[in-house]
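Open question from group meeting: does this chain pack into something compact, or does most of it stay loose? Before anyone orders reagents, we agreed to write out a predicted structure and look at it together. Recording both the input and the output here so the notebook holds the full record.
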Amino acid sequence: MKQYKENLVRLFCAFHGILNSETLVVRTTVLPVTQPACDRVIMEGMRFISDTLCHEVLLMTDITSSIARDDCFNVLDLHHVMRRHIQWRLPDGIHNYAQCPSDTE
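Structure tokens returned:
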């Protein structure tokens, strides 16, 4: 976890060093993951994480978003928005339909 945070800080510092100050950088969060995620999506050697993947994704999303905000980058929280739209989730537990139904709120 410590290495993950350090790498994020380095990444965002590098953005500041190479991007024009007028460049808009938006960090989007990942979509929610159903617990447990379908075995078809998780590689054979990573199956041990399928039961905790949704929690790990949420934790990493929170950490990354916090660091991005601290470095003055915009964060578009897709995770928060899409957590209410389970009906759009595909059977794999991770991906959502490309087009949302037209009868949305």
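Observations to bring back to the group:
Residues 53-70 form the longest helix (18 residues).
Helices lie at 2-18, 53-70, 78-82.
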